[in-house]
Amino acid sequence: MLKGIDARMPADLLDVLMRMGHGDEIAVVDANYPSHATAAETVSGQVVELPGFSAPEAISLITALMPLDPFVPEGALWMQHDGEGDKPDEVHREAIAILTAEMPEGGAVGSIERQAFYARARQGFAVVRCTEARPFGCFILRKGVIF
């Protein structure tokens, strides 16, 4: 056990977060997402499993330790529901509330089309798969800095 770190934080997620640098991105994906195929192309090549976590719960766990990046147009992105544009679903609204509270001044949360999400996630650092069952419950978080 370590002080100040949520006891539910798995060692492999803590390791990934520690190895990420400013500007690196991590994809938090739902149970339906092709996580292993995507992760194979990431920097770490790794899928971190978070069984029993919804996407908002996973995001809360991660952002308790990892700062979000306010120096880009969007420090966090959510996957758009096909045909819905930037109209958020319930899972997105729950996560956006967490991300907005954790976003440093000047930062923002945005959305990204599904196929563009897949392409961007493949260029990221790692993939975190939770057991979120709601469709399109996928997010990209960009690591910021601590001043």
UniProtKB/TrEMBL annotation:
Q: Which reaction does it catalyse?
A: beta-D-ribopyranose = beta-D-ribofuranose; alpha-L-fucose = beta-L-fucose
Q: Which SUPFAM superfamilies match?
A: RbsD-like
Coiled-coil residues: none
What InterPro entries does UniProt report for this protein, alphabetically?
A: RbsD-like_sf (IPR023750), RbsD/FucU_mutarotase (IPR050443), RbsD_FucU (IPR007721)
Q: What start and end residues bound the annotated signal peptide? A: none
Q: What keywords are annotated for this sequence in UniProt?
A: Isomerase
| Xref: Gene3D superfamilies | RbsD-like domain
- Its protein name is D-ribose pyranase
Protein source organism: Sinisalibacter aestuarii
